[in-house]
Inverse folding.
């Protein structure tokens, strides 16, 4: 009887010892990244499994997570992280996987580069090179890209330079874990946004010939007639490409390449009227005068963000040409594939609209 009691006490002590050993395994993963306020580097040391130290490098500012016991990787599903691969003693990640998780497109382009972006390639990488074209500037990575098979790998140490303004993520021991954006707007709020409208102060040109007007007011009206004529010609010209297929990273339109992405479509249409535009939607957005959504004219450029679970909603991801009467013409893979006419007073477009620019 005493022997059984001793065995019971001994077993209890062993169990308590095991619990005590595990009680120190607090995984303090730090605070997940807030894509609404990104770009700050926070290096946090985390203690895991009773004294085992794991340094989790956080490349975004802090937001609340559910508990301190859950790392960013556990707070997201399996599609929300990218495995790290060691190449030549350097941590790398596959660029196509990274783009996919972040909600971006990524593919090899006709010129041999690898493009990453929303509806056009905002970043362009080349195999074996450390320089990356990002919008209208060049970024140098801490190590060159590496091509293996059909995949292009980028060094983990360069992700902050590339994606720090795009998404929230944490670099863990064996993966890059993306953190959901907590600042995404409620989709129902789009219903409260004002409608897109034509400029109500537009000159009433009627059928009066501008050559018959001699006053200052008449000269202004003559300019309005000429401007309206140019704008009508522009959207009529854009009509010629209705139905041309969308292709991310499309080369300039030609008889051999009848494809557009959103920004090459703008380039083609504007270029036909002597307006030379940059290659990308983000750089096109830096041109022209900002106009209100209820004072639009035909030919104005409309800029939108492309929503995603991990992306910021402040970055230009798509461009379209205002067509008039609350419609736009643009090259897009959705809802149809190709150049299409779209009603922009629908909730999706009202919600994702950033601003409009006038270039002539």
């Amino acid at each position: 009887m005493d022997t059984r009691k001793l065995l019971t006490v001994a077993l209890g002590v062993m169990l308590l010892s095991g619990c005590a050993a595990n009680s120190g395994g607090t995984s303090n993963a730090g605070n997940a990244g807030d894509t609404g306020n990104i770009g700050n580097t926070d290096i946090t040391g985390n203690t895991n499994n009773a004294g085992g130290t794991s340094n989790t490098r956080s490349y975004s500012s802090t937001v609340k997570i559910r508990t301190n016991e859950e790392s960013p990787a556990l707070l997201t599903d399996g599609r929300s992280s990218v495995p790290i691969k060691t190449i030549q003693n350097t941590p790398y990640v596959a660029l196509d996987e990274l783009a996919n998780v972040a909600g971006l497109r990524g593919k090899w382009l006709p010129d041999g580069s690898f493009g990453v972006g929303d509806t056009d390639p905002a970043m362009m990488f080349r195999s074996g090179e450390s320089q990356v074209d990002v919008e209208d500037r060049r970024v140098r990575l801490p190590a060159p890209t590496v091509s293996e098979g059909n995949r292009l790998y980028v060094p983990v140490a360069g992700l902050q330079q590339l994606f720090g303004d795009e998404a929230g993520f944490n670099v863990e021991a064996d993966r890059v874990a993306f953190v959901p954006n907590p600042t995404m707007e409620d989709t129902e709020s789009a219903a409260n946004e004002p409608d897109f409208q034509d400029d109500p102060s537009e000159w009433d040109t009627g059928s009066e010939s501008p050559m018959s007007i001699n006053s200052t007011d008449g000269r202004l009206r003559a300019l309005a007639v000429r401007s309206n004529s140019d704008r009508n010609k522009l959207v009529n010209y854009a009509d010629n490409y209705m139905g041309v297929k969308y292709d991310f990273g499309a080369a300039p339109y030609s008889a051999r390449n009848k494809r557009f992405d959103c920004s090459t479509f703008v380039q083609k249409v504007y270029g036909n009227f002597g307006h030379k535009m940059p290659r990308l939607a983000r750089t096109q957005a830096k041109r022209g005068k900002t106009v209100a959504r209820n004072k639009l004219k035909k030919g104005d450029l409309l800029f939108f963000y492309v929503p995603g679970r991990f992306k910021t909603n402040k970055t230009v991801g798509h461009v379209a040409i205002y067509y008039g009467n609350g419609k736009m013409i643009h090259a897009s893979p959705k809802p149809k594939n190709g150049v299409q006419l779209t009603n922009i007073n629908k909730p999706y477009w009202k919600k994702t609209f950033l601003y409009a620019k006038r270039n002539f």
Notes: DSSP finds eight helices and 20 strands in the chain.
